[in-house]
Amino acid sequence: xxxxxxxxxxxxxxxxxxxxxxxxxxxxxxxxxxxxxxxxxxxxxxxxxxxxxxxxxxxxxxxxxxxxxxxxxxxxxxxxxxxxxxxxxxxxxxxxxxxxxxxxxxxxxxxxxxxxxxxxxxxxxxxxxxxxxxxxxxxxxxxxxxxxxxxxxxxxxxxxxxxxxxxxxxxxxxxxxxxxxxxxxxxxxxxxxxxxxxxxxxxxxxxxxxxxxxxxxxxxxxxxxxxxxxxxxxxxxxxxxxxxxxxxxxxxxxxxxxxxxxxxxxxxxxxxxxxxxxxxxxxxxxxxxxxxxxxxxxxxxxxxxxxxxxxxxxxxxxxxxxxx
Length: 324
Fold this sequence. Notes:
single chain, about 325 residues, 2 domains, two-stranded antiparallel ribbon, globular, membrane
């Protein structure tokens, strides 16, 4: 039986999770595996065999540190830096190509001198660009997962996430609904407050300085008051793309956001630390005559993928809630 010959256990149950139906068999020991044990269908070996062969990610929620994550990702980067850099170049090329298509669509609309056509082609192009860039980014994370699990950087994996277009769009739509819409409503409320206080009348009479001062003061106060709550709420969204990329069959958008919130629970300061390191890596790559920016992006993606792997539940832990 080859490594990729999973088999199917019709009516069988998982050896590690007896309450779950089997979706395949381990290519090494032959035990039945559920979707969790096969890492969403991406692993041909069960967790026990992966542990014996050293194929599991060594860091987990209870033992990971920013320093240990850096050491692990740096070692993986040194081993596969060339292919990771090429994967980043392909990702940037696809993003640039999608932007070119958007510009072509806008040019066609402008040549036809049709505002409606410009709007339709521009909107469709923007949506297509968003989807293509997002799905290729998921593919880049999938490549990073493979490298961190001890495998090679397979460039074909960059385009392995195209079947997730609907879950990806639905997740973005949900994020827009729960994050962007409330902020728009808050801005509208602030505008109504301005109208109610008569500041707009001052502006209408040309007294812009008198009208602008209080408005800026209110905006500054709201920014300070809402900064930390927004930071606390939005930081878990850092894991949305890794969560979508890791699962072969992505969960529902609500489940994705719930898992991201659980992953970030009690880990926000460490996440900020990893974010600062990735920023420093990118700055270092930019300083290196911009040539180092490509490998720096690959290393940054490894750090994001590694942090996700360290914080996600292990296959043998079942589906119990994450600790706080």
